[in-house]
Description:
Layout: E1 20-26, E2 45-50, E3 63-68, E4 74-79, E5 84-89, E6 93-98, E7 101-106, E8 112-116, E9 130-132, E10 136-141, E11 151-152, H1 162-174, H2 178-184, H3 197-206, E12 215-220, E13 227-229, E14 240-245, E15 251-256, E16 262-267, E17 272-279, E18 289-297, E19 305-310, E20 316-321, E21 325-330, H4 340-343, H5 354-358, H6 361-370, H7 398-405, E22 421-423, E23 427-430, E24 445-446, H8 468-471, E25 478-483, H9 487-491, E26 509-514, E27 518-528, E28 541-552, H10 571-586, H11 601-610, H12 613-627, E29 651-652, E30 663-665, E31 671-673
Parallel strand pairs: 8-13, 11-18, 18-22
Antiparallel strand pairs: 1-2, 2-3, 3-4, 5-6, 6-7, 7-8, 9-10, 10-12, 12-14, 15-16, 16-17, 17-18, 19-20, 20-21, 21-23, 24-28, 25-26, 26-27, 27-28, 29-30, 30-31
Helix pairs in contact: 1-3
Amino acid sequence: WPLQISGEAQELFSVRHGPVRAARILPAPQISAQKCDNFAEKRPLLGVCKSIGSSGTSPPYCCVDLYSLRTGEMVKSIQFKTPIYDLHCNKRILVVVLQEKIAAFDSCTFTKKFFVTSCYPCPGPNMNPIALGSRWLAYAENKLIRCHQSRGGACGDNIQSYTATVISAAKTIKTGLTMVGKVVTQLTGTLPSGATEEEILAHSNLRRSPLVPGIVTIIDTETVAEGQVLVSEDSDSDGIVAHFPAHEKPICCMAFNPSGMLLVTTDTLGHDFHVFQILTHPWSSSQSAVHHLYTLHRGETEAKVQDISFSHDCRWVVVSTLRGTSHVFPINPYGGQPCVRTHMSPRVVNRMSRFQKSAGLEEIEQELTSKQGGRCSPVPGLSSSPSGSPLHGKLNSQDTYNNFTNNNPGNPRLLPLPSLTVVLPLAQIKQPMTLGTITKRTGPYLFGAGCFSIKAPCKSKPAPQISPSKSVGGEFCVAAVFGASRSWFANNSGLKREKDQSKQFVVESLYIISCYGSLVEHVLEPRPLSTAPKISDDTPLEMGTCPRASWTLVRTPQWNELQPPFNANHPLLLAADAVQYYQYLLAGLVPPGSPGPITRHESYDSLASDHSGQEDEEWLSQVEIVTHTGPHRRLWMGPQFQFKTIHPSGQTTVISSSSSVLQSHGPSDTPQPLLDFDTDDLDLNSLR
Length: 688
């Protein structure tokens, strides 16, 4: 179903296959002169894992079938011996998730690229949680290998030594954590070398190799070697980006942000979710740094996470639990406390405001921390605490300060690591169980302002029955995604749609779909905390949410299926063709069906011949004056600059530019110091 910007939902493709465990439309692969797409004329492709595979003989859910949405034929089938849990795909690879295993296939040829067999057995609902970014793949490793461990990882109460982790794992399994126990009993193995007495004790109690929960490994799908990916003491770290402890409990769900630099992980308890920033090193994973930027605190009750979604600008993250509740958290891609300045503007702001950059606050804080008192701070709130504003609280350590004064921004992978921020959800959105009735209508039902119920066009029928596996134990499956508002046009159909209409929304709309087929668009409106006495840049946020429109994307058994082959003007094919065309252009290849290589020389020459060069020169000389406004404060007016007078005594001779002290020779020929203040911090080249 595409949702047009006008709000209409149109059914494009539907097929009844019996129970389907996973289905994905595969994105167009990345191509180059060396790597061409073997299935170009068949795309778009749909990957499906269903209970009865194409061969019919294999056990249920054990094969991935790739169907062409252009021709309707099955172009490839990949068989496995064990059930498939999930499919993930990006422009480079197709990832098939199995029990404790991951298999990755090339997106152009669907040949096997690499596989991982050391995943931690998660109790569910997601049996083997992974996260696939545009290039990196993260999964839960079943042990911590010290020689590959990255700097950082989970901090706060969650950090533990390797031994303590093993012992706590042994205790939990002994005390009857049956869900892990069932799976672990099948595993036998040997101890890692150099085991301590406690580990041997734990091992003798368990009679098997201890699995360590909560460890995350991130691999680079481009540079990783073909075949099995093994993280062990003997293996080299080719392709391993990071390897770190993220939780004490088994990991339940994880996701990368759109840029692939932030990773959100959740454990089986579901109290706290962790946001990590991954800073890589080209040499090895042990040199990489993992900054624990945020702990997103959901609550004290236990809940299983089923879905994590980021906004496109990475300032909002939505985590949905199996109770059907979606929790909306504000974050910054660079860490720090979310506040009015960072989250009330339509665009992402820099970590430090223009005022903070030019006001010399680091130096003021430095004086305040080194000699309590000193010069009074011009910024209220700073004189009382060294890190009054959370956004530059990170910059007040001596090392960072020295780096700034030496014009060296510092290495983010080295200490000190940024401080951890605990964030509470600004909104908790509960998806209603039923929404109106199932009709053939394609437009949205519109909500009034803040109204939660829908006026059903006719008598309400009971909600459609869903498969028992989805509804066992009060579980309620939902998924969330951010996108441009589709209800605006339907609400204001009489008005002319303005070009800058989207600018009035600070946050994109949040779309939540439930397993009953109801899709609801929620409008999120962040605002300053209403109880705050005075609104400033650092004021905390609160958020108002209201459902704006809903679509019932449920089919009745009487409806016809829409199966390929499709016409050439079908929206799915038009979209696939457009993407494919630009993929060829990006790779510098000639797109199929185009007349020839596109050249721009003729148009350039015709432009050049029309204009005389003189006008261009006059215009160029004005550019800098016209397009650059003056700074809001001259650099030297900031308090970090000091002007001092140099008092020479006698005749001065500079010994060498690298000398730390300048000296002069007086009449008595005894050396005297030339300057009346410390010269170590002067750049003497500029004094020549």
